[in-house]
Amino acid sequence: QQQVKQSPQSLIVQKGGISIINCAYENTAFDYFPWYQQFPGKGPALLIAIRPDVSEKKEGRFTISFNKSAKQFSLHIMDSQPGDSATYFCAAARSNQFYFGTGTSLTVIP
Amino acid sequence: NAGVTQTPKFQVLKTGQSMTLQCAQDMNHNSMYWYRQDPGMGLRLIYYSASEGTTDKGEVPNGYNVSRLNKREFSLRLESAAPSQTSVYFCASSGEGGYTEAFFGQGTRLTVV
Hints:
The complex is a heterodimer of chains A (110) and B (113).
Chain A: E1 4-7, E2 10-14, E3 19-25, E4 33-38, E5 45-50, E6 56-59, E7 62-67, E8 72-77, E9 86-94, E10 97-100, E11 104-109
Parallel strand pairs in A: 2-11
Antiparallel strand pairs in A: 1-3, 3-8, 4-5, 4-9, 6-7, 7-8, 9-10, 9-11
Chain B: E1 4-7, E2 10-13, E3 19-25, E4 31-38, E5 42-51, E6 54-57, E7 64-68, E8 74-78, E9 87-94, E10 102-104, E11 108-112
Parallel strand pairs in B: 2-11
Antiparallel strand pairs in B: 1-3, 3-8, 4-5, 4-9, 5-6, 7-8, 9-10, 9-11
């Protein structure tokens, strides 16, 4: 049973556009929602994370929007760049137990 | 600072062979994890260790065993490899408390023929 559902599976965006990846969860006990970025041949690395007591967190071009009542959260990448081309995983965690989504392969076309 | 180190990086096994994937972290983390990554399936937890001497099954533990040798090292063993275990395996570690980042190794690409 997938604890975290992620969509879309793949995404193609023009340079300068906005990339949006969505995730949903069921377990209201989750209290930490990180996003990881993975480049080919590398391990995932933390990109940005949010706690459920805030509705939005922004770091540079990356923003997490969090809707606690809907149990949904999303990653927005503004002004997408070819260097952002990677696989993105959302996750939900509680007590150091991490549950990952299925991943989104993002391609940014120059 | 090496972070999380996995060995080997690549391995080809024949069906029925056994092997151990090694993982070590130098961040003094208590929690360590083994995940497998398959296309369209994301990262699925195989086993988890909250501290030295303790291990717990994750989502997909069948066919695997683990050993938390000490605080630094967490190994994953395949006793009798099967083609279904062809995957990329990641070890990770994280610090204490909630809201803590999980640090991943570079992965081991395993092919079982």
